[in-house]
Specification:
Blueprint: H1 14-46, H2 49-56, H3 59-86, H4 89-124, H5 129-144, H6 146-160, H7 166-189, H8 194-218, H9 234-266, H10 270-306, H11 313-337, H12 339-346, H13 350-363, H14 367-382, H15 387-406, H16 417-447
Helix pairs in contact: 1-2, 1-7, 1-10, 2-5, 2-10, 3-4, 3-6, 3-9, 3-10, 4-5, 4-6, 4-9, 5-8, 6-8, 7-8, 9-15, 10-11, 10-13, 10-14, 11-14, 12-13, 13-16, 14-16, 15-16
Length: 448
């Protein structure tokens, strides 16, 4: 069995291997965000604030539509890592071929929903009339190529399950450079506005999907993909769905609450939308840094469960939590200190920058709580329980945020953007506490 691009997470020191796993994953995500931010910067600088608001206001809706299927990629990661740790290579092969085919079907479904539903959903979200058509156009182009995005994410989840986070980094680097170059050509040279950004994204994602499939095809070991063997194994698919569907549903709930929040932000006009969009782009960099260790906890726990090494799980969880807290607190402070300058990259409008800072002051001082919440939820999934994090998220985050917006936010003296943003840290605390309770319950059963 080839050991190249693999990490044995069931033996040896945890922290050094967690770093080896997480750093390329963080770098991949940061690169992706840099290129996504470049999209927004190019639009904001060369197409105007309305185009910036149009692209930025679609983020929560895109996440809402794709999160269910992205949850299945989480299920794929857990199942593959479990079989890899247990050295059940026949089942591992069945999982890989099932997952790739599921990714294709998922993309096709999303294309239909995204293309047909773009404008009606944006209208429901109270998108301002001056950005509605631009946002709808961007969404239709984006979802026209969403199958490639699904294939890449499922393929990356398969590679991560054995500890290979380096090659997805190389793929994103190449695809991201292509995306940036195409943005400049389509937006600046051909004056395609948001359509140019959407088309550049689709082309780069198609290249990324092709490359990850080629890697799997050329794998010489049990991770080899044979396109002629693509089929859905019902038993494997059931396992993926059992773990991935609740994870996807949790993502949908968070995204739905964010859609409600975005709708509330939209009521304050294009300037606030643009400032909020720029701030969200900055937040994503810190989130991905924390999420690298969160994903590490997920995969490490899964491999150790498959190998029967439940004695290592508690240490894995708390090492990842400590890493998340340090990264979230330090990066939050740094980004907040340079907040005005960083927001100035996206827009030169002082009012847009001021609007963005009103969000950053609340989020960046508490963002490590979000990482802790996600890290604990992924740890629970890694040991095979995916339903309880959904319940805690439903009550602690989604339901709370919706109640907050339909009660506190409607009080005249609290009808401000700051009140909207305060719902985030409070919901993170509530959900984290619930996840800790569930985790301790399952851990006692494992060590009994």
């Amino acid at each position: 069995m080839s050991r190249s691009n693999q990490i044995d997470m069931t033996e040896g020191p945890i922290f050094s291997k967690l770093l080896k796993f997480s750093i390329p994953l963080i770098a991949s995500s940061v690169l992706q965000l840099l290129f996504n931010a470049a999209d927004v910067v190019v639009v904001g600088r060369f197409a105007g604030d309305n185009s910036l608001a149009a692209v930025g206001s679609t983020g929560s809706l895109i996440n809402l539509l794709i999160n269910l299927f992205m949850g299945l990629s989480v299920g794929t990661n857990v199942v593959v890592a479990h079989y890899f740790g247990a050295k059940k290579f026949n089942e591992l092969q069945d999982t890989i071929h099932t997952a790739v085919l599921v990714s294709i079907y998922s993309g096709l479904i999303l294309t239909v929903v995204g293309v047909l539903g773009a404008k009606p959903i944006l209208t429901f979200m109270q998108a301002p009339t001056d950005v509605l058509n631009l946002a709808a156009l961007y969404l239709r182009i984006y979802f026209g190529g969403i199958t490639a995005t699904m294939v890449y994410n499922f393929g990356s989840a398969i590679l991560r399950a054995k500890g290979d986070t380096q090659r997805p980094l190389y793929i994103l680097l190449g695809a991201g450079i292509l995306n940036f170059v195409l943005n400049l050509i389509f937006v600046i040279v051909f004056k395609m506005d948001v359509a140019g950004v959407g088309l550049a994204t689709v082309i780069s994602q198609v290249i990324a999907a092709i490359l990850v499939i080629l890697i799997l095809i050329r794998e010489p070991d049990e991770f080899h993909l044979n396109l002629k063997k693509l089929r859905i194994n019902r038993m494997i698919f059931t396992r993926i769905v059992k773990i991935g569907l609740p994870a996807g549903f949790q993502g949908i709930m968070f995204s739905f609450s964010n859609v409600i929040i975005q709708s509330s932000v939209n009521t304050f006009g294009a300037t606030m939308i643009a400032g909020n969009s720029a701030a969200v782009n900055l937040e994503s960099f810190i989130y991905t840094a924390m999420n690298g260790f969160s994903q590490g906890s997920l995969t490490f726990c899964s491999q150790n469960m498959g190998a029967g090494r439940t004695d290592r799980i508690k240490k894995i969880v708390w090492i990842s939590q400590a890493s998340i807290i340090v990264i979230g607190a330090v990066l939050g402070a740094v980004f907040l200190f340079f907040g005005t300058e960083l927001l100035g990259i996206f827009s030169t409008n002082p009012e847009v920058i001021k609007a963005g800072m009103s969000r950053l002051w609340i989020i960046f001082t508490t963002y490590y709580l979000c990482g802790m919440m996600d890290g604990m939820a992924n740890s629970i999934r890694g040991i095979g329980h995916s339903l309880m994090p959904v319940i805690s998220s439903l009550i602690g985050a989604c339901l709370f945020r919706i109640i907050w917006l339909f009660t506190i936010f409607l009080i005249p003296q609290f009808h401000t953007p700051a009140t909207i943003f305060l719902s985030y840290p409070i919901s993170w605390i509530l959900t984290f506490i619930a996840n800790v309770v569930f985790y301790n319950k399952y851990l006692r059963k494992l060590t009994a």
